[in-house]
Specification:
By secondary structure, the protein is of the alpha/beta class. Helix content is 41%, strand content 14%. It has a six-stranded mixed sheet, with helices on both faces.
Length: 359
């Protein structure tokens, strides 16, 4: 299969006028691309910013949810991947590779498929949610299951790409950071610069780095409030975690590649990076689904768990980033929903009792 890229037309201001403009086209003046560059896009970006009335009442602030699950592969990774894969194709690459806990793998595989190039991913054995694995395999990526954790997988792909002409598309890739910063640009535009605090999950720390870069470029400075899972909180503990563990698989990372950048983002914004327990993450996970109508993956709920645990701390306008869709990790949802399936015969009385009886 041969990739024949086609330049995309630039449509000024169309993203909020009914026409979805690919991310690079919309922010061409703020990204490292030129008019006429051949782009690999799935029309990512321009995700909803949803009011959260229940959370707003609970914390005494105006809270909104940035729904990054609205991206094509269901997570925020698509913002960076359109840029990373477009740049790789521009440079003549025939293959891309990543280490992943799941979302990066699914996104890299999709964009590589779109570009007609090879994609390989290395995932920690038994530590990737099935929804993400299914996506990655369906897009045709070569999946290598490593007998180790994410941090070891990343070390392996970095070593491999130093020896072979394969482009690494993890968040060490600057194009990833450039693409992901556009979420901050969208929030700032929607709120006209009025954001006081951003709550965001922190795993490999590329996303908090990206948001802060985007806000800085606009001259905005909301407090960056990052939250790690307590069992995988190297930035909180101040040292690498050899065996990170958490129900939030997307942030099960013990040695973030953007460590220093994340610390700088929290410090320079007068924010913080703090920990939340798995129990707190699961409580927020259920609250989002049952009371706000938002089914996110567990890692997404870390941002809300942090806000509920530590409070708005004087912020009036708050955004919580929900990084991915709940269908990414159906096993965790089924195990922790608290709901049950009621078996019923084909008989109206039994059905009436099941429908109207005590839950």
């Amino acid at each position: 299969m041969t990739y024949v890229p086609v330049p995309l037309p630039r449509v000024e201001g169309a993203a909020f006028e009914g026409t979805h403009v690919p991310l690079i086209e919309r922010y061409l003046d703020r990204l490292p691309f030129e008019p006429g560059d051949k782009l690999v896009s799935l029309q990512e970006g321009s995700t909803p910013l949803l009011q959260a009335p229940v959370l707003s009442e609970l914390v005494g602030a105006n809270v909104r949810l940035k729904l990054e699950g609205g991206n094509p592969t269901g997570s925020f990774k698509d913002r960076g991947m359109t840029c990373a894969v477009s740049a790789a194709v521009r440079e003549g690459a025939k293959a891309v590779i990543c280490a992943s806990t799941g979302n990066t793998a699914a996104s890299a595989a999709a964009y590589a498929a779109r570009a007609g190039i090879t994609c390989a991913v290395i995932v920690p054995d038994g530590k990737i949610a099935q929804g993400k694995m299914a996506q990655t395999l369906m897009h045709g990526a070569r999946v290598i299951s490593l007998s180790g954790n994410f941090d070891q997988a990343l070390e392996m792909v970095q070593e491999l790409t130093s020896m072979q002409p394969i482009v690494l598309v993890n968040s060490v890739n600057e194009y990833r950071i450039e693409g992901q910063k556009t979420a901050a640009l969208e929030i700032d535009e929607a709120l006209e610069g009025a954001l006081d605090a951003l709550c965001i999950p922190v795993g490999n720390a590329g996303n908090i780095t990206s948001y802060w870069r985007g806000f800085q470029e606009l001259g905005s400075a909301p407090r960056m409030l990052g939250f790690q899972a307590a069992g995988a909180a190297p930035l909180v503990e101040g040292h690498k975690v050899e065996h990170p563990e958490t129900v939030a698989s997307a942030i099960r990372i013990g040695n973030p590649v953007r460590w220093e950048d994340a610390i700088a983002a929290a410090r320079d914004s007068r924010g913080s990076i703090r920990a939340v327990t798995d129990a707190e993450i699961l409580d927020a996970f259920r609250l989002l689904a049952m009371r706000e109508g938002m089914f996110s993956e567990p890692a997404s709920a870390a941002s809300v768990a942090g806000l509920l645990k530590y409070g708005a701390e004087g912020a009036e306008e708050v955004v919580c980033v929900l990084t991915g869709r709940g269908l990414k990790d159906p096993e965790t949802a089924l195990a922790h929903s608290g709901g049950r399936i009621i078996q019923c015969p084909v008989e109206i009385g039994s059905i009436e009792e099941a429908v109207l009886g005590d839950p």
